[in-house]
Design a protein that fits this description.
By secondary structure, the protein is an all-alpha fold. It contains 5 helices and no strands.
Length: 117
């Protein structure tokens, strides 16, 4: 695994875990922001737990692919809400993170394929 890939993976894990934790803790900014779009506290906590679990799964090689898929889905949901809020710069950054998660998924699939003789 290249150093660049490890750095990208570490950043994505940090983003997923920290984002999940802030939602689980019901940080006022998250409650207010997502609340405008119908997210109740229970939904926000569940959403954050899913992000947290996905981020943790990305650390482990055997669960990295599914973890990246989970985080990508949650980031896409966030991107839609950000777009609805007309926060285009953060929406673009979120889409970049999703693209990098795609790279993680691709790399994970390449590692899982058996070497043919």
């Amino acid at each position: 695994m290249s150093i660049l890939f490890k750095v990208i993976l570490a950043i994505l894990v940090f983003l997923a875990v920290s984002s999940g934790v802030t939602k689980i803790m019901l940080m006022p900014q998250d409650v207010e922001f997502f609340g405008k779009y119908g997210f109740t506290n229970a939904i926000l906590i569940t959403y954050g737990a899913i992000q947290l679990i996905g981020g943790i799964m990305m650390i482990i090689r055997k669960t990295r692919f599914i973890g990246a898929v989970i985080v990508a889905i949650t980031f896409l949901i966030s991107a839609v809400v950000l777009f609805m809020e007309e926060n285009i710069p953060v929406t673009i950054i979120t889409f970049i993170a999703v693209a990098l998660l795609g790279l993680v998924m691709k790399q994970s699939l390449n590692k899982e394929k058996p070497v043919s003789a």
